[in-house]
Amino acid sequence: MIKLEQIHRDFQVGDQVVHALDDINLEINQGEYLSVMGPSGSGKSTLLNLIGMLDHPTSGRYYLNGKDVTELDELEEAQTRNTNIGFVFQAFHLVPRLTAAENIELPLILAGISPEERKPKVENALELMHLTDRAHHKPEQLSGGQRQRVAIARATIMEPSVILADEPTGNLDQKSGHDVIKTLESLNQKDMTLIVVTHDQALGDRSHRAIRMVDGRIEQDIKNSGRHDTNQ
Amino acid sequence: MIRTNDIVVFGWQALKGYHTRTLLMLLAMAIGVASVLMLTALGEGARQYVRGEFASLGTNLVIVFPGRSETAGAGFGTMMGVTPRDLTLDDARALTRNPDVSRIAPINVGAAEISWQNRKREITVMGSTSDILKIRHWKMSSGSFLPDHDWDRAAPVCVIGKKVRDEIFGAHNAMGQWIRLGEYRYRVIGILASEGRSIGVDVEELVIIPVSSAQALFNVPSLFRILIEVKTRNAIEGVIQFTKSTLRQRHQGEEDVTVITQDAVLETFDRILGALTYAVGGIAAISLAVAGILIMNVMLVAVSQRTSEIGLLKALGASRRQIVRLILSEALLLSAMGGIIGLLIGQAGSWGIREALPDLEAYPPMWATLASFLVAIITGAVFSLLPARRAAKLDAVMALSRH
Amino acid sequence: MQIRDFLRLTGTSILAHKLRSFLTMLGIAVGIAAVVLLTSIGEGIHKFVLAEFTQFGTTLVAINPGKTTTMGMSMGVFGTVRPLSIEDAEALKKLPFAKSVVGFVQGNAEIEGNNRSRRTTVYGTGHGFPVAFSMPVRSGRFLPPDDPVAPRAFAVLGSKVKSELFGNVNPLGKLIRIGGDRYRVIGVMESKGQVLGFDLDDTVYIPLARGLELFNREGLVEIDVMYYEGTNVDQVVTGIKRVLMARHGREDFTITTQQQMLDVLGSILDILTIAVGAIGGISLLVGGIGIITIMTISVNERTSEIGLMRALGARNSQILSLFLGEAVVLSAIGGIAGMILGIGIGQLLAVALPALPVHTPWTFVVLAESVAVFIGLAAGVIPAMHAASLDPVEALRAE
After folding, report:
1. What is the pTM of this model?
2. Which of A48, A74, B250, C383 lies at a 20 to 30 A Cα distance from C365?
3. How many domains does chain A contain in total?
C-alpha cells in the first residue's frame, strides 16, 4: 500500500518557484484502481513519477508497503523500482534495437536473473498479452497496441505491487486503447494496484477511485463504485 | 543560387548547436595539425643546428686524410688515417701553391697527460699551425695564438682551452706558465675563448701546440688531417683536383689519400635530417586521417539526426547540389577552424621547444605549415563527401514524415 | 546483471549503428596499426643491430690507449705519449679468465698480388683473432702463434680481397706485397659481409708486429680480451686494470666491455622505438577523441532509453558500465583490427624491403591491445558518467 504525507515538490523555473505538488496527502490500498485527472500542469505526472520513485519530494514522507522510501539510497531505490513498480508510458519507450521478447526481458536482466529462469517467464508474459507470434519482432514492426502490450508485459514481468500508467492510451486508436485498458484492468483484478493518469473522462470513469488535481493539489477524491464493467 | 555567406552562417549555426561534439572534432583536427607542426619544427631546428655547427667549423673547407678505400664510403680503416706512406708537412706545404687556397692547416691529434705543479689530467692535444684559428673561426680570450712561423719549428708553446685553464690553474694566472705534456714542456701563450657549441672537438678541453711539436710528442711522422680553406665556393672543385694530382705526384703516382669537402659531409647530414623530418611529419599526419574519419562519422550522424531538417530544406526548394554544398561547407568550416587552432597550438608548442632548448631554432618549416593545413582541409572535404551525398539523396517526403 | 547479458546489450547497441561503429573502430585501428608498425620497425632494427654486435660474442672487453674520450672515441687511438704495447697484450694473456687476447693495429694500404692491386684495410693482429671475434677461416689457416715480437711474414685474406685479387685462383702459398714487404698467403676468411657499414671482407690480416712496422706506429690501437663465459665482468675489468696499472704506473687506458656497449646501444635503441611509437600514438589519441565524440552523441541519442532503464530499476552503476562497456568494446575490436593491420603491413614491408628489419614481439601485441582497452575506458568515462547522472524524469521526457 502507498501512503503520502504532506508531500511538496517545488521546481525552480528561472527565479520563480513552481509548486508542482502542494501538500499532498494520499493513501492508496493494495489492489485499488485509481485514476488521476486534471488539466495540463496540475501535477499529475509529477505525482506519478514521485510514486514511481523517479522523482523525490522537496518535503514530506512517502511510505511504500509500510516502509519510508524517502530515506532509501540510490541502489535500494533502483531495486525497489525494479521489483515493486511497473511503468507504462504514453510513448511506449521500447528500446528500438531489441525485439519484443528482449524488451520484456530487460527488468529480469537488470535484476541479474539467469536466462534459464527468464525464458519461461517471458514466454508466459508473451502468451498472456497474445504476443507469442510477435516475440522476435522489433518495435518498429509492431502496431501501436502491440507495442503498448509489450510495454505492459515488461511492466508486469517482475510481478510488481503497483502499475503506474501515464496516458497509456494517448498514442492509440480507440480499439487498441480499449484493449490496453482491458489488459490493465485484468491485472488489477489480480490484486495489483493500478494508477492511471489520463485526460480521458471515459477512462477516468472506469476506475474505482478518481482523483482530480488542480495546481498541485488534490481537489476531489471520489469513489465511483459499480461503474467498472468487469463483464465486458 | 544560395550565397556563400549564408552557407557559412548556416554551417556555423549547425556546429554551434552541438558544441560538445564540435569542440571535440576541432580538438582532434588541431592535435593532428599541431603535432605535424611541432615535430617538423623539431626536425628543422635540428637541421639548422647541424648547419650552424658546420658553418662554425669553417667555410669552403676541403679535408684531406691519409688512406683510401675502394669499398664505397669511408671504412673505419681509412677514418683511422693510418697508412704505410705518411701524409707529411711537405705534402701540406705543396698544396699552398694553389692560388685559390686561402689558408691551410695541417693537423695532428692525440691524448696526453697535462701537468702543472701537482695538478694533472688526461687531455686531447692538437698539433696545428696559426691558420687553424681563422679556419675554425675560433676566438682568443687572452694572449695570442700560435705564432705564424715555419711549420717545421717545434716551438715549445701552447694555447689552452678555458676548461683546461680552470682545472689546471684554478685561480692562478696561466699566461706564461710552463706546463708539461709527456716528456716535453710548453709555455702557455694564449687562452681560447670558450665556444658555446661545436661538433668535432671540444675547444674548452683542448691544448693546441705547433704541429711539429705534436709530431715529436706523439712520435708520429704522418699528419692526421689537412684542412684547406678555399677562397671561393666555385674554386672548390679545382682545388680538389689540384690536391689529388699534387699528392699523387708526390706519392709515386699512387692515390692513397681521401679528399672530401665539408659541404659533402654537410649535405649528407642535411639529407638524413631532412628525410627524418619528412618521415616524422608524415607519421604525425596519420592522425589527420584519423581526425578525418571522425569528421566523416559525426557528419553521418548529423545527417541522420537532421533528416527532417534536410527534408524541410528540400520542400523549401533546395537542390541536391545545395544540400551537398551545405554539408561540405560545414565540414570544411570545421576542419579549417581545427586547422587554424592547430597552427596556433603548433606555433605555441614550437615556441615552447625553443624556450626549452635555446640551441634549437625550432620554427615549423613553411612546407609543413601549408601542407598540414591543406591536408586538414582536404581530409575534411573528402571525408564529408559520403555524408553529403547521403543527405542529398534523402527522399523529401520520407525525411519529413520521420518526425 | 549477468556478464553475458551485459555483453549482449552492448553488442546490440554497437550493431544498431554499423557504419558509425565501424568508423569509430577504424579510427582506433589506424592509431594502433601506426603504433604497432612503427614499434615493430624500431624493435626490428634493435634486434638487427644487437645481432650485428653480438656476432662477435658478448664476452669481449676492449682496451684503448688514452683515458679521455671524445664522442665515444679515445683520442689516444690517433696518438698518445703512452701507447699500449705488444708486451701489454702478452701480459694480459696470463690472466686466468682470458680465453683469448688479441692486439690490433689497423690502417689502409695498397695490396699487390697476382698482378693486380687494391687499396684495402689492413689489420695487424694475432693468432687468437678468429676465436675472439668468431670469424672462421674458410681455407688454409689463420696466423700461427709465432714469436709476437718477430713473427713470420704471413697474410690471411678477407674473402673480397681474395676474389678481387685472385678471382678463382687458389691464393694459398702465393706471395702478395703490402707497402713494399712481401707476405705469403696462408689462409682465406669466411665471408662476413657488411657490419654496420664496415665491409669486413675487404680486409687483409698480417701479424701484429709487422703491422706496427708497416704503419710505423709505436703502439696498438686496441687490445681485445675474450674471457671465459661465467666470469664476472667486474672481475675481468679489475684484473685487466691491475695488470696494466702495474706495467704503466697509472691508468692511461680506457676499458670498454661489450656488455656496456650493448647496454648503452640497447637503451638508445629503446628510446628511439618509444619515441617513434609515441609519435604514432598521436593518431591513437585522436582515435580516442573519436570515441569520446561518438559516445557523447550516443548518450544524447539514447537519453530516453536511459530514462526507461532507470524506470525499470537500473542502477547508476549499471548505466555507467553499459556505456563504458560499449566504449571499451569499440576500442578493443578497433585495437585487434589495428594490430592485424599493423602486423600485416609489417610483414608486407618485410617481404617488399628485405633490408628493413621488422619484428613484432608478443609483448607489444598484448601491450597495444591493453592500450586500446585503456583508451576505450578513458574515452568512455565522461560520456558514461554523463549518462549515469541523467535525471530519469527529464530523460524520459526527451525525444
Report:
1. 0.78
2. C383
3. 1
